[in-house]
Amino acid sequence: MSRTSTVSRRDFIRSSALVAVAMAAPSGVLATSQTRSSAEESSPIRLGLASYTFRNISRTQMIGFMKQFNVFALNAKDVKDHLPMEAQQETAALADYAAAGIKLHAAGAIYFAKDEDTDIRSKFEYCKRAGIGVIVAGDPTLETLLRIEKFVKEYDIRIAIHNHGPEDKLWPSPLDVLKAVKSMDPRIGCCIDVGHTVRAGTDVVEAIHEAGPRLFNVHMKDLTNFQSKESQVAVGDGIIQVRKMFEALIATKYQGFVDLEYEIHADDPMPGVIASFAYMRGVLAGMGFASKG
Asked: What does the pLDDT look like over 238-293, one tens digit per residue?
């Protein structure tokens, strides 16, 4: 297939999804959790947002943006004022999300820099207060992971270790995570960061199948060059095979969310975010998972 025909197909998928969303929403009215009509309602793939995408944007603005692109599932991070670690501030944030109909399903990435019970417990308490069932863990060492396992059992909160590509000395690929945790509690698994995974030389589809029930979260992004971290683009503008990824997630009966983590244009991410969700929804529609309205 030529580059021109590939681009045309991606534009068609994205524009079809945008038209469908526009037709479904009443003119001039923002979507709400009661009126949403996006493709993921009838799809086995659930789309969400990683709040790090809006790391330079306030919580209030982010909530308004989420209503615009019709996503109400959030993977929250203690960045800006999205989900502060301090209990009182966290409570205020949770009230704002509840009022907007936004549900938090994961938190992270959360870093476990100290191999100490007090520090680890504080992070589990943070997620317990928010009703979050998955901690996306950034950099736990093997030693710290053994201590974390004790808290996983106590709190019944899953740990999804996030891989960070070839620069990551501990967890470059999800396959490295799976190798390390195979004999641990089944609630310890991985968060596949799609961009970092391909840069580590790992096939994402293979990693999804290998992870199986130990895959608890997916951070979605796209690249135009699998050797370059700086080549990130809106989903659908790169060379990651989104449909094959979705097919693998469905085949393995993945129960978590595919959270868009758009890491470029931090001061104005909305154009790329809208384009990314439109493309993913278009792919799902092409797979037969169109919105029921």
From this structure: 999 999 999 999 999 999 999 999 999 999 999 999 999 999 999 999 999 964 33
Separation of CA 48 from chain center: 6
**The tokens of 167 are what?**
């620069």
Asked whether the beta carbons of 39 and 250 are under 8 A apart, the reply is no
Residues 268 and 255: their CA atoms lie apart, in Å, by 31
The pLDDT tens digits of the residues spanning 92-138 come to 999 999 999 999 999 999 999 999 999 999 999 999 999 999 999 99
In the chain, alpha helices (H): 3-24, 59-68, 87-100, 117-130, 142-155, 174-181, 194-199, 204-211, 242-251, 270-286
DSSP 160-195: EEEP-GGG-SS-SSHHHHHHHHTTS-TTEEEEEEHH
| CA angle (78 as vertex; 77, 80 as ends), nearest 5 | 105
> Which of 250, 192, 241, 194 has the alpha carbon at shortest distance from 216?
192
